[in-house]
Records
---
Amino acid sequence: MAGRYGRPRSVLRMRTVAGQVFLLQVAIVVLLVATAITALVLQSQADSEREALNRSVSVAETFANSPGMEAALRSPDPTAVLQPKAEAARERSDVDFIVVFATDGTRYTHPLPDRIGRKFVGDFDAALAGEVVTEKLTGTIGPLVQAVVPVPGADGSVIALVSAGVTLDKVSGVAEEQFPLLFGVAGGVLLLATGGTALVTRRLRRQTHGLGPEEMTRMYEHHDAVLHAVREGVLIVGGDGRILLANDEARRLLDLPGDVDGRPVRELGLSPGTAALLASGRDASDVVVPVGGRLLAVNQRTTDQAGGPPGTVATLRDTTELRALSGRADTARGRLALLYDAGTEIGTTLDVVRTCEELAAFGASRLADYASVDLVEAVLRGEEPTATGADVDMRRVAFGGGEGTALYPVGHSIRFVPTTRMGAGLAQGEAVLEADLTSLSGWQRQDEDRARQLVEAGMHSMIAVPLRARGVVLGVAMFWRAGPAEPFEAEDLSLAEELVARAAVSVDNARRYSREHTMAVTLQQSLLPRVLPEQSGVDVAYRYRPAQAGLGGLGGVGGDWFDIIPLPGARVALVVGDVVGHGLHAAATMGRLRTAVHNFSSLDLPPDELLWHLDELVARIDQDEAGEAGEAGVTGATCVYAIYDPVAGRCSIARAGHLQPAVVAPDGTARFADVPGGPPLGLGGMPFETLELELEEGSRLVLYTDGLVEDREREIDEGLELLRRTLERYAGGTPEETCAEVLGAMVPQRPRDDVALLVGRTRILAADRTAWWDVPRDPAAVRGIRAAVTERLVAWGLGELVFSTELILSELVTNAIRYGEGPIGVRLIRDRSLICEVTDRSSTSPHLRQAAGTDEGGRGLFLVAQFAERWGTRYTGGGKVIWAELPYGSGEEPEIDLGLDLDGL
């Protein structure tokens, strides 16, 4: 069993007081039982001898005086008459033998017949004289007591003798019968002692909290030593107001008599206030009471809070010497409190001007009547000051203490005169105290007219402290007192220096933040789209709202981004992404991802493949930056990529850890597209899937970042539902109106996270703006295709493009017939440019190459590249599409150098 403080407690060692009492009780019970047994045995032996003596005498006398005894003895054969009677009497009387023998000792009877006629063994001389003889001896049958009784004759003479004997074993059974009772009583006593010990143990354990004798002794010794050695008075008062304990220090401090224990507090001769406090039984903390010539600090607590006895314990501490220092301590405490409050009220934002306003307001309310802050012009621009001290242009940015004074107003430009103490102090970075402005000791040379106005207005003292940070003077803070206020002293100067030093750090941090913020905002604005590209697939509107400073990290700079990318075939890609975090790194990462999406989209990849390539790129960037100390990876970026085809009215969407886009049907119902989810970019290991949607004309596709729907005041599910209801409520507006209404309904004035919103209203190209032809796998079919294309271009009014279009389609269709597979098709799309497309089932893409001068072929794609504005290949689920775009008004034939040596032909 574990004891208190983790020490094992042994039952055998009986370390507790109850255990020791139990052992003592067991020892007493055992001793008593042993004594009782011994007494019982001795008493039993005495009783056995007495019982044996009485029985043998009684039996012998009875048999000796029995009728017919004399006649039997005088008969010719006494044995024949007496032997049966003796045996019968022996059995009835429960003795071991009855022997009748003659006066000469010859036996007439004996339990053993062979011993009849032999001499009696024993002393019977006294019996011959008529006495009864008893003796204790050890015979053949063991220890016994025998009696010899004379048999008187008719004449009174002894004619014979009778001896009766009883062994001691026969009469000792009475004592043995008492042993069970004795042991039972002993066992009961032990059980009673055990139960009592258990009760005492439990009681003692509660009283002593499980402490053993050694622990209690040690605790008492320590308690007694500490109680009398401690330099604080300890006074314990019972619930009845009597003193239970007073240590030496308490007796000394209160001047108590020697017999104080047990006396009421109110009878100790203490002052009424002190006696009332000690006898009240209430809690008190650092209550100062006068006792004699001392000032005692009294702390008092009740003793029954944790189940203890009623009463109180009071500690007394002599504070007489400390009171002499209390004034300075209060001053220091007030100074620390002021600096602490300054730390919580100054520098609450990373804004230079706001920090200066907080310093001026705090200084005017807590240190002076008026306070002002002037900053170097470069600091206001977020730049590092190149010069310090006087002769540097400063601007007043904050003023506190009211209006209508002669002090410079906010916005006033100041240049301190170097010949004044203030100007010299600025040059050295030292504070200046002007305790008496009315003496005009030289400070007035800064502006004598204004100095005279200040003195007339009641200004009588001033402190000027440079704002220094990292060895550079950022500006100056000035504190003024007027009217009845006490003039500034040296202690006020040191306090102002500490106050301004702390504020200067905040100002410098805000300046450096402003510089970084400006750089980051410039970088971010240069990375986001500035104008919408021209495209015919969707009417697009967007909003970007950065997080505000102090709420979402580096205010105004985040990692949310969006893009609208025109794709071949009149298609358009809508992209929204989010890089977790804020600041330069998030903005730079966003720019890298946006550039990567542009590059991958130029390959005309489907959404799932583009995200796969983007995921690999991010993972590679993370791996490259993992070894650079202090660099964070890109992991945590999300993206949703959608491609809309206005010809087919279909939209392909894939997402990587991003929220589901919303789709608003032309009838105004809004829903979230169930785009298969993929992991955030950079995690890898999971494929991305594409969702194909049929979108009617006039449908709205809404892409956004999590800052739009997530907020501390609502769950994301509530935000999504609010977005859906808002989109349905304003479904009839333009994309611009939808963006404005959604942001107004869902985004607070100062958002905590970046918000990117992109709304696209779908269009569908009219059927008369496209044309399609199936091409047989026959080179002769090229001529028919050229004729059909020429006819359609003339009908569209694009006759100037006939030559270029015929040349391009002839080359592309011929290549498809020669190298492609499966059905071949030709499609023309009349959009912002003329788009020519040739499809086949082959996955082999043609490549542009530079033909040699002697090559007879290899110049077809070169001609396509010369006549088309752009051309390329995109792969579909059933093959590939080779496309080329011709701008309108490009019917002129370009001068083309095919690299042929015409002189050699």
---
Amino acid sequence: MTITRPAAAEVEQRTVSLTIDGQPLTVAEGTTIWTAARDAGIDIPVLCHDERYDPVGVCRMCVVDTGGRAYAAACIRPCEPGMEVATSTPEVQRSREVLAELLLVDQPPREEDPKQTTTADNELLAVADDFFITEIEDLFPGPSRGTDGSNPVIEVNHDSCILCDRCVRACDDVQGNDVIGRSGKGYSTRIAFDLNDPMGQSSCVTCGECVSACPTGALTNKAINSIPIQPKAELDAVDTVCPYCGVGCALTYYVDRERGGISFAEGRDQPGNQGRLCVKGRYGWDYASSPQRLTKPLIRVDSAYPKGPLSAATQENSTQDTDGPGRKRGAGKGGRKPGGLVPYEEVMPHFREATWEEALDLVARKLGGIYAESGSDGLAGFGSAKCSNEEAYLFQKLIRTAFHSNNVDHCTRLCHASSVAALFEGVGSGSVSTTYGDIENADVAIITGSNATANHPVASSFFKQARRNGTTIIYIDPRAGTVADHADLFLQLKPGTDVALYNGIMHEVIRLGLIDREFLSSRTSNYDELARTVAEYPPELAARITGVDVELIREVAKVWGESKAGVIYWGMGISQHTTGTDNARCLIAMCCITGNVGRPGTGLHPLRGQNNVQGASDAGLIPMFYPNYQRANETKNRVLFENAWGTELNPENGLTVTEVIKSILDGGVRGMYMLGENPFLSDPNINKVRKALSQLDFLVVQDIFLTETAEFADVVLPASSYLEKDGTYTNTDRRVQLGRKVFDPPGEARADWEIVQDIAQRLGLDWNYSAPREVFEEMVPLMPDYTNLSYDNLGSSGKLYPVQDPENSDGTVVLFDERFNTADELAHLVPAEWLPAKELPNEDYPFVLNTGRLLQHWHTGSMTRRSFALDSIAPRAEVSIHPDDAAELGLVDGEFARVSSRRGEIVLNVKVSHREARGNVFIPFHFREAAANLLTIDEIDPTGKIPEFKFCAVAIAPVGDRGSVRVGGAPQ
């Protein structure tokens, strides 16, 4: 795999010669005066101009004398041959001074200015200081235009606004959200959100890009957790990466060491995010300072046995005879409260504090005892995609070497396991073949099964920018998610009909002769079998199965087939099905039959869900793979790792997350080590998970908060958040980045890698790592894709693996330019037949449930629901339903509804939404008080072993008296 970016074509560059302040210059044609002056070391003041945005020239602060009748705005005026420019004549300077006075008179006093009293970088005041403007006696401010504090973390002060439109361009041109504009006339003109709504009630997504853009105090951050916003010079800047989705944005925390908290965050200029952040990255970091952090080891007290859930919320809908210590089924109903966090007052009395020595000795003794009695089949470990690469590596190494078991897995089993299975089968690698930023080189991009604006918001900003620059966006999903608002073509298919749709598209591509015959003949196998299969899916049949208009299917096939460069991005709407592997097989085939792999602007990209799900998978946190996807059941790989780790290893593949739950119920797995995972909420069919967790002989949970899963633990170990340790993280693009420690862990909490090592030593392993760097140095020689990487050459922005020359290259953008990673170096085309979902609607359960994420929340909510900003913006669980369905059922927006499946029921608020198709409902899975996975089915994909999160049959009905309902519970 090599870097495929071609060298830039030799283009004749025309130049322009001119003088600026008497200095002769020659610049490229089209260069603005401001840019030419800057490059020559000549400073021209600006207020509306920022190189991140297209210039508009509205503030006129940058005017220069070009000899014309009027001064020219240097930020937009291109250089011309023979032009003589004067940038700072007395007349020009006076013009700027008068403009500064006119703008300054409406500003709040310096001692009250929202920006100057916080970050102290008001650009207008800096210009005024350059002109020594102190008092303005002959001008008077106009009437106040007001303030707006409706957003929980952003303050709007219209009197500080100079109408430079930087916020408008940041919102439109960079983030692509199109929320901010102008309203009013004359002096009353001001920035407006949507139709002049308060910011907190508008469609603003609180990405904070406008705050970053604003040169004055018009848009400023509010303090979070009483940590004041201060000048950067007074704070400690720590460069690290965002802990949330797989985009892996580079950011800087500005830390108040005196108060022990973060003042604010900013994005860094890394190729993957280019300084951008979303609401989670910019404002969602305060969970780490929650007073509910675990700070001491906990051991379950004797009276809390037999084991079971400890809080009322986790006991409801139980299928067990006994729900918890001393409680019969149904006891505690009515105890559920809104708020969505594990009630410590209910759970903590069932544990006692312990020393680290006592807790670790107990863990080693119990797990070691189960291994002695039941062998490797009796134990399993769930690792975490929230932990670093080094921690994932050590965790899987512990399970494999201490217990000689491959029963080690993590959340990839619940998000992209089917994608990885199909990619390995088809192209020989589970990694993405190109980056999300490579969409800029694509003629056409298909985004399918992913509401990227919510799940990968910064990546989606690149998608939206590409569309503005001419890339055709095709969006395919059962929901009209916000990506649909930015698509050229939107296909709203029926849930579970993906294979039929893509077969229909490929049928038409082949019929039109739009296949790449040379690519097929030289770089693929099994095309004839694929062609025979899709021949049975004409667009007419695909339309009947999917509900998509037949002409739209034909149009998509034509647009895709005729593109010179096409790329496909997909999310869990593709993978989280019992047919998830088949869905991904179709996408691989769609790219291959048109030759859309291995070139800029082409390829296959399953958008990874968690911050380090790519890295955790790379590091071997998978039951059938050692690090770097080396198959665990192949002798040569096992011998390699036996030699490296100095012990015999198990030759059989281990159990996946879902298979472990079944094994527990069947009496197989008896003990578990759970690191940063919360299967009680994240796994399907919660009743079954509850029963399994209660049945375990021994469970150790290592986490930063008490989770629902921790209620079943025998020992709870207080771990570290990503803010409290060093390590590397690998994002969805294959970019390996350094995460840096910001704070020490609270109380007696420890870094996860240290805890894993402590347990390993007690189990007889000779581990003596002193820092994550040493772990990384051990990993790299065992992981060919990471070859040449080191802590020292990752730098501030990381590297895309594989990389041949890390000192001079950012790494490989496009893979498979010459060969695929399969044994025969060909792409293997695997045909798929459409199969219906395992559980279909009927009269009793007539709706299809789809689950997923919200922009403001992440995974099981243990972090985001403890973030002030994120919980303030999205505080409650809602079921989204089409207006016509709501009307027929008597459901009212904001009122309560009961949603039930064959496995249980929940009560939550109704959200009437045109984004849902008739017959479908959507519920996010972050909310424990309305746990969506209580409803979901635990059928799995036979190949990827991933659960069917995106399709189960449910019923929905209104709940009567509001006063009789507890949020997320059943009526009293």
